[in-house]
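Long-time lurker, first post.

We've been arguing in lab meeting about whether fe (ii) ion would sit comfortably in this protein at all. Half the group thinks yes, half thinks no, and nobody has a model to point at. So I'm putting the question to the forum: if I give you the sequence and the SMILES, can you give me back a predicted structure of the complex? Inputs are below. Any interpretation is welcome too.
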Amino acid sequence: METLEKPALTQEEQFQARIDADVRIEPKDWMPEAYRKTLIRQISQHAHSELVGMLPEGNWITRAPSLKRKSILLSKVQDEAGHGLYLYSAAETLGASRDQMLADLHSGKAKYSSIFNYPTLSWADMGCVGWLVDGAAILNQVPLCRTSYGPYARAMVRVCKEESFHQRQGFEVMQTLCEGAPAQKEMAQEALNRWWWPTLMMFGPKDSESPNTEQSMKWRIKRFTNDELRQKFVDMMVPQAEFLGLTVPDPALKWNEERKAYDFGEVNWEEFWQVVKGNGLCNADRLQARVQAHEEGAWVREAALAHAAKRKAREGVGA
Amino acid sequence: MNQAEWPLWEVFIRNKQGLDHKHVGSLHAADATMAIQNARDVYTRRLEGVSIWVVESTHIHASNPDDAEAFFDPAADKVYRHPTFYDVPDSIKHM
Ligand SMILES: [Fe+2]
Ligand SMILES: [Fe+2]
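Top reply:
Settle the argument with this. Predicted structure of the protein with fe (ii) ion, as tokens:
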């Protein structure tokens, strides 16, 4: 006989109750399929961005202006590889396969951050990438340290610890150029002109055009909306640009005393969607470089497996 | 071109002498030697460790989260295992 007054919670309701209580979800816990899928998509896209993100900066390692800058840039690029690896392994705890994720990246099926489809044309771009792009990444990533899925949150804690060096070294590159000869300062300004708007696009489409945001906020995967983070970024960066003596390339930029925040111009969303669709300046180059690296590394992966098998067989005989 | 994926390894790191090894994440490697070398590069770029353990992920056995309530239940009603269960007279010192 049924005596319960309240119907028992469904699995899904229990899950949401845990999320609402800020209890982290761990790999073997029950989760809605859509939660799993959303996370696999987000974490693998994030991992791909770290991996592809090495390319625009890798471009300058051999031409860094000093040994010090070269060592720093090399370390930063190594960190980005590390970030990719932390994230791929977090996605694997959800049942995604590493090979499949890479295959999806290489076939163009999976996305990565559009920012890496812009070219790095001058040394000042290394400053802008660290200062602005890593700066935007930090704003995106800090709230993810409290995201509801445990392995993702833990990977982000590790990532965030390493990012602040990335941003500071970029700012230092900018500062050095801005305090240098007029031509150097001009180079810094020119780089800011090219990177400002693409960096604002890193926060994703406007909230009104971002249908997944609501569900992601409910599941506490996301903790801030795209527009909230974009505003925070502008408010953070404008004073830094002023300190450098650089002009942010936005005629609509203006302090709003009432909101205690900057008003700023509209992102060119047409350009954003073009790059997302694969029509950015470097989309084809980036993918081609990734695929080439993967294919040229195939023999190493095979040889390592063969070596491991041989050693195992030898140990087996010896035992 | 169709080749097997390198196996997955779980990585445990001792931050400094005197502390436990703690799980930090996982990585792929062909064998244990390579897993340790990769773990050094992936997880200790800033002196985060003095010792690394790696275990092939397939060798980890875990309790089932769905059974967690019943499984850990035996310890739930044994408050007397905690020092706070006991009233110590105020005049008694060093206990
Ligand atoms: Fe990163
Ligand atoms: Fe970074």
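For your lab meeting: Residues A 50, 80, 83, 137, 159 surround fe (ii) ion (ligand 1) (CB under 6 Å). The beta strands of chain B are 8-14, 21-28, 51-56. Whichever side wins, do check it experimentally.
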